[in-house]
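INFO batch 0412 | record 1 of 1 | parsing
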Amino acid sequence: MSLTAEYSTLCKPRISLFAAMSGATGFILASSRLDWELFRLMASLFVLACGASALNQYQERDSDAKMPRTADRPIPSGAIQPGHALAYSAFLLCAGAGLLLMLWGIAVFAAGVCTVFWYNGVYTPLKKNTAFAIIPGALVGSAPPFIGWLAGGNGVLSREIASLCLCFYMWQIPHVWLLMAKYGKEYEAAGLPSLSEMFSIKQSARIVFIWLLAAAAFSMLLPIYGAVTMNVTAVVLYANAGLLVINAIRGLRDRELFLSARALNSVNAYIMGIMLLVSFNGLTAWMF
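INFO prediction complete | emitting tokens
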């Protein structure tokens, strides 16, 4: 792999793009428009997320080297020196934060900086101490939609954005716990806490099942609180929640399915569905 590709991998581009897209969802919910401001916001959030991801890989380089799933990442594999990765992450973080400040003002800038602090300064170190670090850490996943909401010109307190951010929060917890269940032995070998240390696979499946039911239930708040206003969008939203529940039941009954990539994909499809539905709802109002 070329050095350029290694630096790209350091940024976790898929995760960073997801953060930018979730920020765009909050922006569309706030402004109901599709314009260059939206794409400037996505670019700013993408750069900031790339910086946070690169810093995360620097922070976790020792544990990454002990897990087969992550041993080939740029730092533990030796493709990028830790000092170079740290400098690169600092550059991206400054660039992303600077763009937010220059283009969107102090409130959006502060929200972005606080998100990075919570991810790299709180959640990442906490993962070394408890398998339940994701419960406070999931606030990171709900932050980009809120940043997009602020950039769209709306105030801090709103039922619409609160219901959307809650959906992101509830999604991220079972998402991480599914990863822990699938790669529990690797986490333990790296000296990291895992659900498999405390619970059997069957118990872990029940815990994830409960969280997925709660995630599906909380998505019902989107039409109640005005984040989704069209009847057809609401119907598809209910179907999306119903599909999540069906897949959760299947995972509860089938050990192999619970530990497979299909379980993760179904959870990720659920949150992508919410992003698409909220965005479609907002852009329909803009177009018509």
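INFO post-check: Residues 62 and 76 are 7 Å apart (CA to CA).
INFO record closed
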